[in-house]
Design brief:
With 419 residues, the protein is an alpha+beta fold. The protein has 2 domains: 204 residues, Cytochrome Bc1 Complex, Chain A, domain 1, CATH 3.30.830; 190 residues, 2-Layer Sandwich (Cytochrome Bc1 Complex, Chain A, domain 1). The chain is 46% helix and 19% strand. It has 16 helices and 11 strands. A 6-stranded mixed β-sheet has the order 1-2-6-3-5-4, sandwiched between helices. Strands 7-11-8-10-9 form a 5-stranded mixed β-sheet, with helices on both faces.
Length: 419
């Protein structure tokens, strides 16, 4: 399902061939997410992502980068998370060399012109304001800050305006040299391509990558102690996130936690959806999910509800958590969750971009890799007893954390609601 080799520079090259595909996604992962930042540079990882698109030697501007890919009908984008950043180009298979050419020029030869930095400051600040004006997003950021406290895992990736307004060309160059190194990156090829071609293209276009990673991230030693966070905002709805600390991506219960979240609120046949949205008509959206990092995790439910029914919604979500912890799950619920996950996962891998992300993230972050069959087998092996033990351990009142954005102003009343 995948092949991996390493260039003489130390850069791993991974190929996930998909028979019958017409596209190829070339994706470069870097261990350069926001949890690697220090207080004085909050937001530089995300800002750097923007700056890579400002051109290098061959494609000297955003316009030239865009025209090269748009002219072949391709897609290109980037993302910055907590533990990694990624840059990809997705094209018809015959244009794979162009994809490599554009990516390598960006990542190896980015100049970070000061005049472009000045222009991009405004773009990023407007992006930050967009998220501030979107309570569904902002509530998730506030929940991570509440859960992880003043630790880089609790900082949002956009960063702080004071940092965005002061970083200069040399800051970007130093950050690139610290993290965009062959021992801290992975070149991934997914779709209609074989491994020998991937290696040939990687040597040609990424072989000049050099240096060594200069910094590790700060481990999380404890979760935040606060239980409730309110953000006052004039909204039509109250937006809430109610959750608990959970297991890390490397924990033996990682798969059990993902299945538990599906049972609680992962789809339209889940407990939260049927018992709160359908039975009570309390909300339009409600869902449960997990976030998993290398040494930490969370399980949470988010919803948007009428201001006057906020307390009722919180009480019902708490009730679902406590009932699950006390009574456990049913065997047929677990099987439906496994079938749902298998179906969604299988469909996603028809997209070369999703395929590149699945394999590349494993190679970058985790000590062991799994092909698609072995990955699904890990979920098939989860037992009802394993999920029940985990639910009883996680879904307790002392673990509950709550974020609300809206007109609510009584944190004490909300703290009583969650025990």
């Amino acid at each position: 399902m995948y092949e991996v080799d390493t260039l003489s520079s130390g850069l791993p090259v991974l190929t996930a061939t998909a028979k019958g595909a017409d596209s190829v996604t070339v994706l470069v992962f870097a261990g350069a997410g926001s949890r690697y930042e220090e207080e004085s540079e909050r937001g530089i990882s995300h800002f750097l992502e923007h700056m890579f698109f400002k051109g290098g030697k061959k494609y000297a501007s955003t316009k030239e980068v865009s025209m090269a890919i748009d002219g072949r009908g391709g897609d290109f984008n980037a993302f910055t998370g907590k533990e990694y950043a990624g840059y990809y180009v997705k094209v018809a298979a015959e244009h794979t060399e162009l994809a490599c050419d554009v990516l390598s020029d960006m990542l190896l030869h980015a100049a970070f012109p000061q005049e472009e930095i000045e222009k991009e400051r405004g773009v990023i600040i407007e992006e930050e304001r967009m998220y501030q004006d979107t309570p569904m997003y902002r509530a998730g950021w506030d929940f991570e800050e509440l859960l992880f406290g003043n630790h880089p895992l609790g900082w949002d990736t956009i960063g702080q305006e004071k940092v965005i307004l002061r970083v200069k060309q040399n800051d970007f160059q130093l950050h690139k040299e610290s993290f965009y190194t062959p021992d801290n990156c992975v070149a991934v090829f997914a779709g209609n391509i074989d491994h020998s071609r991937s290696m040939e293209l990687s040597q040609q276009f990424f072989g000049a990558m050099h240096g060594a990673k200069k910094r590790e991230f700060l481990p999380l030693e404890s979760y935040g102690a606060e239980k409730v966070f309110l953000r006052s905002k004039k909204t039509e709805q109250s937006h809430l996130v109610l959750g608990v600390p959970s297991v890390s991506a490397l924990d033996a219960d990682h798969c059990a936690a993902k299945l538990l979240a599906i049972i609680l609120g992962g789809n339209m046949s889940s407990r939260m959806f049927l018992n709160i949205r359908e039975a009570k008509g309390l909300c339009y959206y409600i869902s449960s999910d997990t976030d998993s990092y290398l040494d930490a995790g969370s399980l949470s439910t988010r919803a948007g509800v009428d201001q006057s029914r906020l307390h009722e919604a919180i009480s019902l979500i708490v009730q679902e958590y406590l009932t699950c912890a006390k009574e456990g799950i049913l065997e047929d619920e677990l099987q439906r969750a496994k079938d749902f996950l298998r179906g969604k996962f299988t469909l996603s891998l028809e997209d070369s971009e999703e395929r590149a992300h699945f394999f590349g993230k494993q190679k970058l972050l985790y000590p062991n890799m799994f092909d698609t069959d072995a990955y699904l087998q890990k979920f098939d092996a989860v037992t009802k007893e394993q999920v029940n033990v985990l639910a009883a351990r996680l879904l307790t009142a002392e673990n509950f954390r709550l974020v609300v954005i809206g007109k609510e102003d009584n944190a004490g009343a909300l703290e009583k609601l969650i025990g």
